[in-house]
Design goal:
three-stranded mixed beta sheet; alpha+beta; homodimer; DNA-binding; three-stranded antiparallel beta sheet; 6 strands; disordered N terminus
DNA sequence: ATGGGTGCAAATGCTTTGCAAGTAC
DNA sequence: GTACTTGCAAAGCATTTGCACCCAT
C-alpha cells in the first residue's frame, strides 16, 4: 500500500521511527504502513501541519489512508512525544515533529498569519529551572506569541505588562 | 463555593470596564448589560473559564444571556486584549482576564489536570527582547507546559531537549 | 428613530466513535 | 488464530451564523 517517492529519510526521521517501533511494541501495538507513513510525512515537513493537510499530503503521495486513522495515529505519536500539538489561533490544531527538535516558540502575525519559529536555549533553561523549582516534570511545551510581524508592526505595542 | 454575590468590583475590573467602554465607543459599538456582565464575570474569576462555564455562571447569577452572545462578547474582549485565550489541551478553549494581569505560564498536569500558574518577570523580559530582536510586536502570549505535577511526577523526565 | 444587539435554532467543521471487514504478528 | 487496525459513515461538540425581534444611544 505504501509507494512513496524515493527519498531517503533523514537521520532524525529514522531515529524517531525506531522510537516509535520500540514504544509500540512495548504497548503491544502494531506498526502498520499507515502509521509509519503518518510519522514519515510529519518528519518530512518543517512546518506545522493540521490533520487534514496531513491527510491530503498522504493521499497525494498515494498512501491510502482515512482521516480516522490519521487522527488515531496522531494520538499515538503524541502519547510517545514524537509529535507536538500547537494551537496557532486558527480553528484547527497543528502538529509538528518533536523528536530531536529543540523547544521553540512561535510568533504568529495577526495580519498575515506568518509564523516565525525561534528556539532560544536560555529561555528553555529558565523554563526548566522554573519547573524544577515547582516540582513539575515537563514533557512538552507550547509557547505562542501573537502580535504583528516586522512588516505589519504599527509601532504601538500593547502586550499587557502590569 | 464562591461568595461572589454583590461584592463590589475590584479596581482592576473597573479599569478594564472603562477600557472596554472607551474602545467600544471608538468602534461605534454598544455596551449592553450582557456584554458588561460577561466582562465582570471573567474579572471576578481567578481561573480559566471556558465559554460554557461562563454561560452557566451567568445564568446562575440570574443574567439572561445566550451562548451566542457569550461567544460574540468574548471575541470583542479578545480584540481589545481584555481577555486572553488559552488552549490547555482540553477540548475547549479557556479564557481569562488579561487587563492588569502579568504574563504568566501554565503548568498542566496530565494526570490530575491541575493547572499551576506562574509569572516570572525574567522570562517575560527575555521574550520581549526576543521579539524586539525579530522586529515582532507582541500583543499577547500563551505558554503551556504539559507534564506531571509534584504529586504525580515519576522521576523520569522526557521533555525533548536535543 | 435606527443601526447595532440578542437569542433561538440550524448550520459548520474539526474530531471522535461504532462497527464490520481486514491484517499484522 | 487472535487481537489489533482500518475506514466508512454517523455521531459529537464547541463554535458560528441567519434571521426576526429588541433596545441602547
Amino acid at each position: 500500500m505504501n509507494m512513496e517517492k524515493k527519498e531517503k529519510p533523514s537521520k532524525i526521521t529514522r531515529l524517531a521511527e525506531d522510537q516509535f517501533r520500540t514504544r509500540m511494541k512495548e504497548d503491544g501495538l502494531r506498526c502498520t504502513s499507515e502509521r509509519i507513513a503518518v510519522l514519515q510525512e510529519i518528519y518530512r515537513s518543517d512546518t506545522h501541519l493540521d490533520a487534514d493537510e496531513l491527510f491530503v499530503k498522504l493521499k497525494n503521495r498515494g498512501v491510502g489512508i482515512s482521516r480516522a486513522t490519521v487522527y488515531h495515529t496522531l494520538d499515538l505519536l503524541l502519547k510517545f512525544h514524537l509529535v507536538s500539538r500547537t494551537d496557532l489561533g486558527h480553528k484547527h490544531t497543528h502538529y509538528e515533529k518533536a523528536y530531536g527538535v529543540e523547544n521553540h516558540l512561535h510568533m504568529v502575525c495577526s495580519e498575515c498569519g506568518k509564523v516565525i519559529e525561534i528556539s532560544d536555549p536560555s529561555i528553555s533553561d529558565m523554563l526548566e529551572n522554573l519547573c524544577r523549582k515547582n516540582g513539575f516534570e515537563p514533557e512538552s511545551l507550547t509557547l505562542q506569541l501573537f502580535g504583528k510581524c516586522s512588516v505589519h508592526a504599527s509601532g504601538d505595542p500593547v502586550m499587557s505588562k502590569k
